[in-house]
## 1
Amino acid sequence: MHESIHEHTDHDQQKNEAAKKTATLVYALQAASFLLTVTFIAAIIINYVKKDDVADTWVASHFRWQIRTFWFALLWSGFGAILFFLGIGYFILIGVAIWVIYRIAKGWLALADGKSMYLED
């Protein structure tokens, strides 16, 4: 039997809501990482485990945003840690922290407003 348009729309809406809840959880875990670092790792694991579930939703752009936030923060934090003893690393680490806060705030606010993170989405 064929699904009615209404049933298809309800399914899409439920999928979008579930995806939005997951993205909200990831933003919360990323924010909590300033108190407990391991939550940043938990967040990226959730991103990769649930990535297929959000693939055809507007929330997929948030997952891409969150994943990029993690990997670039890790990369720049690594540089900061290596250069810490030369004095410049401290400033790099402060910059990374500010950048991560910005990314979490911008993404979470856009998610709450029902907006994608990129123009092409």
## 2
Amino acid sequence: MSPVTDTLSMTFAALSDPTRRAMLARLVQGEASVNELAAPFRMSLPAVSKHIKVLEKAGLLIKTRQAQQRPCKIDGEQLKQAVDWIEQYRQLWEGRLDRLDAYLLELHASESAARPAQEMATKPDASEPIETPDKARKNAGKPAQLASGSEKPKPATRSERNTPSAKEKTDDDTLQQQIGFDF
């Protein structure tokens, strides 16, 4: 394990506790004594000292000496390393999401271009006879396409074949809820 990974592990372990994060938030405002850091919490001074030691060991806090006091101040070097490590993954995921967005826009554009052709196929053609109530009774038991008089069923358009079923849409919605990511 490299020293950077070990340092990162200690940094993230120190940051995992809300009490220690609150202490660091207080130290962003300036130096503070152990008593000042302990004031907002309902815990003993030894417990506060343990939190301070964890932050100090992780390199997030420095104890200085001023006469008889030992004020604490924040050390941003380890935080910077953690931010740099996270940043490389943020850039990776933003790139992936940008490519996904571009693909979805392209897909939407191609579906929009195909839609007018599909609408033309579903609009009644002036050359086809209009079905009257008498014809409707006569053709009641026949499939809709054969009842209109044409013997050959029309093939489905490409967009009709690729339209997800209601079950597929439900499965997608369920998956999105499970992973907490809208895609």
## 3
Amino acid sequence: MSHTHIATSFLKLASSGLAEDAFDKYVHPDFFHHNQYFKGDRQSLKEAMKEAHQSSPNRAFDIKHTYGDGDTVITHSHVSKEDAEIAVVHIFRFRGDKIMEMWDLGQVIREDSPNINGPF
């Protein structure tokens, strides 16, 4: 299974409320991340994803682009929430066939944006 396939499978599971399964299947035990809102360890992010799904589930999660280079995969996605549309970039670094490290960056999509090109 390619790193790109693993990254997208992880995101699809986690974004649909199955964070426990996503982490068990695709994430390295020594995983760490760079989301500034949570502690940088595996358990903290997994719990945050589970809580986020309970309090504000995604209506849709659409991966628009994927890029892979060696042990790095980047995804560009559109997340639909009840109260917001968000453009999200995830950057994954792999160790073997497991996600070892992750960055995530999100930007709320403004309806009144002056940029005619949009976020995708």
## 4
Amino acid sequence: MRHKSDARRQAILSAAEEMFCRAGFEATSMTAIAVAANSSKATVYAYFESKQALFLEMLLEAGRTHAEGALDELALTPDMAAGLTRFGFRYLVFLSAPRSLALLRLAIAEGSRSGLGRQFYQGGPGRFITELTRMLACHIEAGALKSGDPALMASHLKALIECAMPERCLLDELYQPDPASLWAQASCAVTAFVRCYAPSPLPGSAVA
């Protein structure tokens, strides 16, 4: 029974994503989503108490489904730079995907609606920062990074990885970065980050 319930919920979320991306939040009705999901309006409301709740869950579900691969790269490994570069690359692949951009545009357009933007940030981009902060704290404890505020470090790393790419992808619909350029961007960002936050050499030690 739970399998059927999960399948029905996913069908509603998929239909909602299609409808919201096509017509926007205001012009999309719960009735239209129900029809697209081959369901009833009462069933849709049984899963989601309001259109706003459905909209928020649709955004968060898409992020959870398609960004998990990037977070998987944050496992603690002996080669910190390599792990962070893989994380950065997979994050950029996710961020630059047409579907991700379409959903991000929706989130920005509707973000001021009754705290929706704050909730989306906490469950989406904020979760990325939280997980990255946790991993960087582990690297600080292991001595791979100098002592400091891991949350601030996480914000710096995220900004370095993204650089100006989100703005260009959001505003220039013809721009689609290739995997090689995304890898180069992630690698350069991590190199700059490690140079900034590498442990300071001990007094009297040789400096290369």
